[in-house]
Amino acid sequence: MDALINELKEHIIEALSLDEITPEEIDAEAPLFGTGLGLDSIDALELAVMVEKHYHIRITDSEVGNKAFSSVKSLAEFIQNNSAQ
Amino acid sequence: MRDIVITGRGLISAAGSNVGEFYRALQNGQSGLKKLSLFNSARSGHFPVGEINDNLTELCGESGLSRSSELALIAAREAIAEANLSPGDLAKAALINGACTGGMLISEELISRLIAGEEIAWPAFRQHECSVTTGKLAAILAIHGPISTISTACTSGALAIAIGADLIQTGAAEVVLCGGTDSLTRLTLNGFASLLVVSDIGPKPFDAHRQGMSLAEGAAFIVLESADHARKRGAKALATLAGYGASCDAYHASGPHPEGLGAVSAMEKALKMAAATPDDIGYINAHGTGTKENDRMEAKALQKVFKKVPPFSSTKAFYGHPLAASGAIEAILSTLVLEHNFLPANLGFKDIDPEIALVPLTAGIKAAPNFVMSNSFGFGGNNVVLIFGRPGKTPTIEQVATRPAKVAIAAQAAIWPEEEKSTYVFPEWLSFAGEKVQKVPDAAFKSLLPPMKIRRLGRVQIMALAAAQKLIQIAPFTDREATVLVATGLGEHSETAAFIENMARNNEATPMPAKFINSVHNSLAGQLAIWHQLSGENHTFTHNKLSLTAALWEAMVILGNSRAKEALLLACDTLSPYALLAGRALNCLKAPLAAGEGAAAWRLTAAGSAPEASITLEAHLEYRPELLKNADLLLAAGDAALPQDLPADLPIATWEEKSGVFCTSSGLGLTAATDSLSCNALSKKLTLKQGSPGALKRIILCETLGQRRFAIVAEHL
Q1: Which of B156, B413, B528, B543 is the most exposed place for a label (fewest CB within 10 A)?
Q2: Closest CA to B631 of B679, B574, B694, B576
Q3: What is the ipTM for the molecules in this complex?
Q4: B456/A49 touch (CB, cutoff 8 Å), yes or no
């Protein structure tokens, strides 16, 4: 799980051009949207593309996405739960 | 005070290839949506689209046009035929075209082949820009009046009609051919899919189980005419254009304001101009794309404006969402409602959404409204509402200036490129090298803005925002309702290219949503509105080297008619590999001139409203030799042909040796002109070509594209 979380932080920084931020600065349990990193709905769409690209899970419903993207940890759990066994 | 009437209509859509077929489809409740067959795409088969299956080249009777241009020409010809315009009427007519995709379908294929290592001759990209369609239409139809191209995403076609009405109101034209066109492309298919707003089952506007929109293509043009002119030549008025309203949400780059505040403002402005009350509206053609967000927002907005919401429908389940054509198709639909006393059904609706709590027309009905409202909303929070009236039943548009008024400069800012030429670094796979350019260093503009806030934006947006930042450091905007008018020849060219390159490399598997949102030409204007909270009319003019004068002209109309107290006028274009190569192919870059980039921004008010402002501007959509009377200096782009019969002693200068060559370099030229007026001395940014200027009180700047020449008069009071 920790390995996945660290990997996700790298992917998030790349997908969202968060050039000023290091993986260590991202709190895995802090909200990604609103407060925390202060991401917005367009970032959520970029994250959906990132998840499909790296983990082959297609998110087609923005409400499913919003739930999965609430924090890095919740995204890691979403990916674990939805990956082909 | 002038009445405006519609005397001709033409359209082509998935629900009919002409107005007659389209009306029969509406009557019969017959949707034209089906699976994509136009081109191979990884997205094919996943969802229905509004595709047109006619042989367009045959129908339009011209070869060598892009699909968007073919669609536009077919619709324009039908409109001209119905209006029965003579060649003489057409020669004097104006043309306003709303477009988003231009020759994108061709560019997509060319870029795929380039990436595969093929050699491509660069003139092949000539169809790319939206303004090419406008130019081709004018040339083929022999239209010699003012022309421009509007690109404001899904409101483009409706806004083109509103600008056409402005041309007639101010006497700049008696007849305007206006509308919009867009073809299906991989860019828009993948882009909208990446925003999760495309429906697998087709649109179900306002329904509880709606999933999204169906992308489409089409074109529609109408002939707008002053009622006097139509009467004199015995043309039948099919409807009146009773009013229009435009606004910007200033909220989000692609999604609507959740409470529909911008939509409410546009509807209220349109009602006010039509001197109508909400009770007068007998039918509303909703934007109703079928996305969750749009329909929820639009329903809320309708409930805010109308105590009792009149019969309404979204008709997009008939023909899909043809982007720039949508507002123009629905303008024609509005006139059909008035002509046939028939309100079309909202196909696809079955179950009430408790969040919406409104029921659209589930079947077509007979009714005879005197006023019909048509809504269009788009990316960048852009809103345009048109109201059409029954001829003879509707009062005159109020708030009319006989001429657009001069505007005064309250503040001005510019971002110039370096004078020293450097070598442009092309991406390796383009295998070009050696182009000398004049570049704006990143430190000169990116550093003005917080990095987190610009991380997803493209170069044009960032440079435009930086210019606006410099402007508000001089004097911030005081009017929340200020209008934003942007001139850009190529828009976010690099973002568009990056999106297409990525599609080609990854077989459309991993689209780039932010780059898609940036790719629309009005992404600059949308960002400017969001950053500075400016919710007035928000227009983007993209007609190659004639963009700035048109945007300034519209500023004069809006400020002169008190539709806003302040205007942000901004001109911006940036360097990109494709822009450079197109410039080289089109032979625009002749030594000693090099390609450049930059931005210019102004805060404008109506002349006379700010006594401290000492410099006024006036735009002319046709250059006339009389403008040179008392002129102290003529400015022209470096490579432009000069007007004939100039006074021998008239000093002439250019700005392009300092700005470099780009579509809206005239913006930097204009800042140099007004600096020269302020100091009563030639600005160092100007290079004198002939003569020697004395006192500088009146400077004429010409924008030139082919045979067309616009002019801006800058004067020191």
Answers
A1: B413
A2: B694
A3: 0.90
A4: no
B100 is known as an active-site residue: no
Residue with tokens 């002319």: B620
Query: What does the pLDDT look like over B325-351, one tens digit per residue?
Result: 999 999 999 999 999 999 999 999 999
> What domains lie within chain B, and their CATH numbers?
4-389 (3.40.47.10), 407-608 (3.40.47.10), 617-716 (no CATH)
Sign of CA dihedral B678, B684, B686, B692: positive
Confidence (pLDDT) at B682: 97
Beta-strand pair B598-606/B382-389:
unpaired
User: CB burial class (10 A; 0-12, 13-18, 19+) of residue B696?
Assistant: buried
Length of chain A: 85
Distances (CA, A) of B328 to B38, B335, B667: 23, 11, 30
Could you say which of A18, A42, A65 has the minimum Cβ distance to residue B253?
A: A42
Report DSSP state, residue B179.
Answer: E
pLDDT in tens, B17-75: 999 999 999 999 999 999 999 998 988 888 999 999 999 999 999 999 999 999 999 99
Residues of chain A with Cβ-Cβ distance to B511 below 8 Å are 49
d(CA B305, CA B298): 11
Please, which residues bridge with residue B148 across strands? B96
Q: CB of B252 within 8 Å of any CB in chain A?
A: yes
Domains and CATH numbers, chain A: 2-82 (1.10.1200.10)
Question: Do residues B577 and B595 make contact, with C-beta atoms less than 8 angstroms apart?
Answer: no
DSSP 8-state secondary structure symbol assigned to residue B67: H
DSSP B573-593: E---HHHHHHHHHTT---TT-
Segment A14-43 mean pLDDT:
88
∠ Cα A65 A67 A69 (to 5°): 65
d(CA B454, CA B457) in angstroms, rounded, equals 5
